[in-house]
Amino acid sequence: MKRRFLGYWRHYYNINKGIFFLIVLVILVSLFPREGKFKYEFQRGKPWQHEELIAPFDFAIRKTTDELKREQQEVLNDAYLFFRFDTNVSATAINQFRTRFEESWKKTKGESPELNMRERNNLAAGLFILDSVYRRGILEPTTVLENINPDSRIAVIHDNIADIQDLKYFFTIRSSNDFLIKQVALLSG
Q1: How far apart are CA 189 and CA 186, in angstroms?
Q2: Is residue 86 part of a domain?
Q3: 109-129, pLDDT tens digit by residue?
Q4: What does the CA dihedral 55, 58, 64, 68 come to, rounded to 10 degrees?
Q5: Does residue 26 form part of some domain?
Q6: Which domain holds residue 106?
């Protein structure tokens, strides 16, 4: 027993250092969390509410050019083109129509009481037709629209609300002109 005790005293410093190391190790392990915590909160189906989420590492995704082209085409087919509905355009066009109509009417027909009633009827009909065209919408021609399938759907933002509609529903400049000519012919004929 005395030998053990003397052996302990000889290695007292090393033994105490080892015991102290084990005690500190146990304390540190117990203080650290057992699993990694994600520092952001999120809910499935809700938009991301934090600034950015960046992976601390880069990784390569190896795909062939055929796979990339196919996936890009799938994304383009599934994605909606977004357009903003501009109400200022229709208001400006209607005001210009009204002004030009009144000027043209006065130049060609003059002013008389019986023509005044006819002028108001024609003006009201013209404004109704023009308003129906602008309420439906005229798409500005772009290269993207030229290459898109006419059966596609697009999103139109009106008062910060996106409405998904068929591309066929909207007028192009040519189809709106054809529509206006048909409507005027129906009214005059």
Answers
A1: 5
A2: yes
A3: 777 666 677 778 888 888 898
A4: 40
A5: no
A6: 65-188
